[in-house]
Amino acid sequence: MSRDHLQSAPSGSAEAEYLDLLARDASVEAYEQPVLLARAEGRSADRIAALEQAKLLALRVRAELEGRRRREAELSALFETAHDLAGLRDLDAVLQAIVQRARSLLGTDVAYLTLNDPARGDTYMRVTEGSVSARFQQLRLGMGEGLGGLVAQTTRPYVTDDYFQDARFQHTLAIDTGVRDEGLVAILGVPLMLGPHVIGVLFAADRRARVFEREQIALLGSFAALAAAAIDTANLLTETRAALAGLERANEIIRDRSAVIERASEVHDRLAELVLRGGGVHDVAAAVSEVLDGTVEFTEADAAPAGALEASRAEGHAVRHGGDWIAAVTAGGELLGALVLRGHPAMDPVDQRTLERAAMVTSLLLLARRSAAEAEQRVRGELLDDLLDARDRDPRLLRERAARLRADLDATHVVLAARLDGPAADADEEAAARRRLWSAASHLAATRHGLAAARDGGTVLLLPLGAGATATDVARRTARHLGTAVHQPVTVGASAPVTDLAAHPEKVAAAYAEGRRCLDALHLLGRAGDGAAAEDFGFLGLLLAGERDVTGFVDRTIGPVADYDERRGTELLRTMDAYFACGMSPARTKDALHVHVNTVAQRLERVGRLLGEDWQTPARALEIQLALRLHRLAAPDRR
To answer: Which pTM was predicted?
Structure first.
């Protein structure tokens, strides 16, 4: 603007210039320019005074406009926060918005909010905005410590221009370290009140010295009131949701209990119907399978997992084994078997109780069946007693009696002598143990189409010999089965296989005597709880066997060598005979045979491949020498 224009401008042009600045929302510094320009141009004192007056008036108007805009922004922020609170869905989001708006409106570097933790008796950092220090963000303060402690104690806002120089509140190492890490200097704190109680503190802080105005303190207090209301609302919502969840859970429990009663009634009705119409254990298993939506099977005691079965028997409850459930079927301390639930790894208490009840019903059915079968067992025992005493010589009558018991006397059988080996506390306990052994043996005989009887303080069994099995297999399997059933070791001696018992019942008594001798031998050898036949004792078996199975002993001992000589026309047996006769010396053996020492070595190497590398050990050598002599006696022309 030219000097002539200013001189000729009306007095009202000063106000016009400042009105223009107000319209452009110019900075405070711009309001000094007209006065400075007028002085530089040498304007009159009246003109400069008019400009000064217009400047002051314009600055007051500008300040009023800024105040109105600030109050408008504050009210808008408070309104938005109240709106967030009204639609509260996430307490964290509402508190974060309060802290963000407080920081923005107060123009501070950092804003944060702490809440009291009554359970731990301290205060913790809940929300931060503008913080860069992880240690500061994770601060926990003791009650009454720091600026927040002063605010909480007095329930009034407090401000410090220089935190570290302020002695009005308690400084602690943890708090001071966190504040120093964050670089804070000026801090304003206002209380969060729920009624008369302080539940936390809302802070605004700067990293430089600053004086907070009264309006800023009031604004932060308004945000603190909204934060407290948000927390109270969230607590009420949480309590309401918890109450609703409790009601819903109660309804679920009622529905579940109703379902439990219905399922229990269904199980009871089905099991009762099975018992009344004479169902068996497998019928019970099938019915429970449908109810539990799984596969339930009844297994013998020796076929179930031993550890889980024993745990179920001891606890009286079904126990988990891998993905299965095992429920022991017991009666009077005797283990009868188990119900195994497959395909149902996650089972609730109701299903578990259903399986346990089915196990109880199964034990009752087994006891009922056992009571009905006791007469049959007595008949089985009587038939075996008659065979042992050879009282009934009529083969036709023997076969008929056996057929009624589903036994076949024309099949190959093994006679077994079984005896308990556990110590008994008194005579009554010993008698009870023998009864359990007889009961288990009778059950085993009935299930395998054999016979059983009590005799000589133990039991005797007549069991058919399955295809591919040996007397030793039957003895060991029987010892394991009976031992598991009566919960103490049972030793079993077996005879060699016997046939044609109807026509020759005297064979049963001889076989029983052989089985008892094997039983006594097991005790002498310290093999209690084991099962064995005469063939397991080497040449000692010749003394134990009833019919002195010489041929079998020779075949088992040197049969491979004899077969090799017969097929190849070699003289391995003759070489072995000379070798033992010469004190196991290859040099003297070659002289006795009139062959080269290498020939002797080759023949002995061949024998080792046929009989095993241990054939020259003392025990094997004794058996082999006895077998060679028996072989010469049986075939004197083979020398």
So the answer is: 0.36
